[in-house]
Amino acid sequence: MLISGSGSNLQALMDRVEDGTIPGRIVRVISNKADAYGLTRAQEAGIDTLVIDHKAYDSREAFDAALIAAIDADEADLVCLAGFMRVLTGGFVRHYVGRLINVHPSLLPAFPGLKVQQKAIDAGVRFSGCTVHFVEEEVDAGPIIAQAVVPILPDDDASALAGRILKQEHRIYPLAVKLFAEGRLSTRNRTVLVDGQPW
Ligand code: GRF
Description:
- By secondary structure, this protein is α/β, with parallel strands linked by helices.
- The protein is built from 6 helices and 9 strands.
- The protein has helices at residues 8-18, 37-44, 60-74, 90-95, 116-123, 158-181; strands at 2-3, 28-31, 48-51, 79-82, 100-104, 127-134, 144-151, 185-188, 191-194.
- The strands form 2 sheets. It has a 7-stranded mixed sheet, with helices on both faces. It has a two-stranded antiparallel sheet with strand order 8-9.
- α1 (8-18) packs parallel to α6 and α5 crosses α6.
- The longest helix is centred in the C-terminal third of the chain and has 24 residues, at 158-181.
- The structure holds 5-O-phosphono-beta-D-ribofuranosylamine.
- 5-O-phosphono-beta-D-ribofuranosylamine (GRF) binds at residues 3, 5-9, 38, 82-83, 103-105, 166, 169.
């Protein structure tokens, strides 16, 4: 699991592993930031952690190579990005194709990138939400596993909206990981199927 910050999605996944909903375990939490609170959450739960500071590397390729070496040493089946604030190289994404997933706080393909809650408010859309998707080389793109819709209220600011979206992230990210861990996800023409069926 790769994080850069608070790790509330990590917490949601840890909780669903703990209560048996997700048949698997989190082998390691890796952060590019030493002060990420998610590292504390992981350590308190007895999960191994590692800091790989991107500033210590000359290039994205070198940083990503260090990430790959660490992840592959653990033989993880699935790599989860959750608030990991580094753009990954094509080489990294290709290495984990089909087993690299991300959560993003908008209804993709609308509003990729950063500060997307404010962008949704500024665009005047009535609904936003969150997306869990397989990662492809383009940022915030790839076959969509799960989405949840969140209404935008008349007096919403970015922080209020982000908080409501985050609650839904905590619901659909564990669901997506559960389906993956149960071997129930596949893709056909870039559409994600569950148990071989559209859902
Ligand atoms: C989430 O909104 C995620 O979608 C975004 O960054 C936030 C991370 O939150 N990319 P947390 O670290 O899981 O609390």
